[in-house]
Amino acid sequence: MTTRTLKILLILLIPLTMLATHAFGEDADATADAPEPAVRVYLPRSRTVDKASLTVDDVAFVSGRNNELAGKVKAVAMGRSPFPGESITVNRQTLLSQLAAANLPTDTLRIIGAEQTVIDRKATEVTTDDIITAATTFLKASKPAGVTSWELATRPKDISMPARDGARVRCRFAKQSPSGQVHIHVLLATNADVLAERLVVFRVKYQAKQLVAARDISPGEPVTPDNTTMETVQVTQPPDEVYLPPFGKRARVRIQAGARITDSCVHEPKPELTIRRNQTVRMRIQGDGWSVTALGKALQNGRAGETIRVRNLDSRRIIVGEIDKHGNVIPMMTRPEVAAAKERTP
User: Fold this and answer.
1) Most CB atoms closer than 10 Å: which of 35, 79, 97, 167?
2) In angstroms, rounded to a whole number, what is the distance separating the alpha carbons of residues 310 and 319?
3) How many other CB atoms are found less than 10 A from the CB of residue 132?
4) Pseudo-torsion of CA 234, 240, 243, 248, nearest 10°?
5) How many other CB atoms are found less than 10 A from the CB of residue 80?
6) Which residues are paired to 183 by β-bridges?
7) Distance CA 193, CA 118 (A)
């Protein structure tokens, strides 16, 4: 190779070498300048806890060069802890959502490790909040018919005891509860034994219909759809399965507009008089295959189903009889139940 040829090759290779050096240098600088995350959050496949509520520190391992931010990440709440015998799964998306909800800069965080972690409860310890949560969840899932809302009436004590394999939290309704309340037994039990039990009491309300006066209703005035309106209200007593509005009944007292119409403020109107005093009536005695009638004079006013005194026009004797729906007077001593009682009398 001549000197001239060598010089030409060097002239050609020097730019290529400089170009390659510049390219590799940029990549090296880019790698060196890649930002290190301020906080790393390592999500293991499983964690076991011994507390009633969770934070990120219970779910994952947090580390990083920004200690202040790492501390804030660790303290972010992650909801309730599983009950004994229960597992809760937390995935990356849930973790990111909680961090974002806490207004933390998620772009400076890096989540590594598993896609999700399974949280188990280590100790057989059920806090008051655990018990209330279990009872509330059970009530929501299987609430008694008609119950629309409830509020806690008692706060049970914690359950704390040595760990037992297979212990789980279970709930059941009490066999009987006072009106306006629901009693739920929260049990910590294995398949064979009940280890502990707490009673949780809720005050409940029901949805019911009630009739309200649309305007003032005077005493003796009948209750009708025209002077009333139907409303849906919350009550503390279980309502009747079928509500029958008291239409046709009459007001005992003045009922003001907007007032609830109850049984105590209305009454059944008395039927019209069937028999009037001094009216001639027919007295009737009836048996198996025979019937005897006689005339009498009513000594009292009376309605169907009431008893009055009647004077027999033939014998002039006064008898007591019941007025039937046809306006006849049935002497009391001839009624089957009276006759039977008389036969039994020694």
Assistant:
1) 167
2) 5
3) 19
4) -110
5) 15
6) 201
7) 27
Longest dimension (CA), the chain: 170
- Decide: 308 and 273 in contact? Cβ < 8 Å: no
Whether the Cβ atoms of residue 279 and residue 311 lie closer than 8 Å to each other: no
pLDDT given for residue 1 in this prediction: 52
Question: By C-alpha distance, which of 210, 267, 266 is closest to 237?
Answer: 210
| Measured CA distances, 306 to 209, 224, 243 (Å) | 35, 28, 30
Cα–Cα dist 28/217, whole Å: 94
pLDDT at 156 over 80: yes
What element of type H or E holds 90? strand 87-91
Q: What is each CA distance from 6 to 1, 14, 16, in whole angstroms? A: 7, 12, 16
Query: pLDDT tens digit string along 25-69?
Result: 433 344 345 567 889 999 999 998 877 789 999 999 999 889 999
Chain centroid, CA 167 distance in Å: 27
Identify which of 245, 244, 243, 237 has the alpha carbon closest to the alpha carbon of residue 147.
237
pTM above 0.90, yes or no: no
The pLDDT of residue 56:
93
pLDDT digits (tens, 9 = 90+) for 242-291: 778 888 889 999 999 999 898 888 988 877 778 899 999 999 887 777 88
What phi-psi label fits residue 103: left (phi over 0), alpha (psi between -120 and 50 degrees) or beta? left
Measured in degrees and rounded to the nearest 5, phi and psi for residue 97 equal -65, -40
Q: Give me the residue label for tokens 């060196």.
A: 32
8 A C-beta contact, residue 218 and residue 265: no
Residue with tokens 């409830």: 150
Phi, psi of 67, deg, nearest 5: -65, -35
Q: Which residue has the higher pLDDT, 255 or 343?
A: 255
DSSP conformation class of 224: -
d(CA 87, CA 48): 10
